[in-house]
Prior knowledge:
The chain is α+β, with helices and mostly antiparallel strands. It has one domain: Lipocalin. Helix content is about 15%, strand content about 40%. The radius of gyration is 24 Å and the shape is globular. It has an eight-stranded antiparallel β-barrel. It starts with a helix and ends in a 5-residue tail after the last strand.
Amino acid sequence: MTTLRAGSILVLMLAAGALAAPAPRPKPNKVPDLNALAGTWRVVRYHQNNRSLSDNREIFMKVDKDQITFQVGERGNVGSAYGVTVDPKRTPAVMNWRSGNGNRVSYTAIYKYEGDTLSVAFTEARADPDHDRPTGFKTLRPRDYLMELKRMPAKR
Length: 156
């Protein structure tokens, strides 16, 4: 009987210890920096105010170091080139594009990365990029754009 009582007490102590143990920390949502985004991405959805902007054209975005370039068709002409910076530590992660040509156009964006899908919500930057920046992917303003891209396999 003493052994049964001692065993019961041991089980109760272990259960109490398990309940008092802290819960495991959730894994942080890893948002990639520019190195992780490097490569070629195919635009699968591009719209503004629920209106498609791709016009049945294949559009690609290439990320290389601190530059992004857009082109129409796999062998198409480069349409636009921008210097790019990201801050993956912000929530949501932020991205800024600045054209290097005489236009000096800037865009302010947020992005998320899930598997081989990259979503970017962006708008033309005005006086204060953080004030103009989209705040979510589901609550876009009429002037915001949404681009969803799939990573292309690396060429061998």
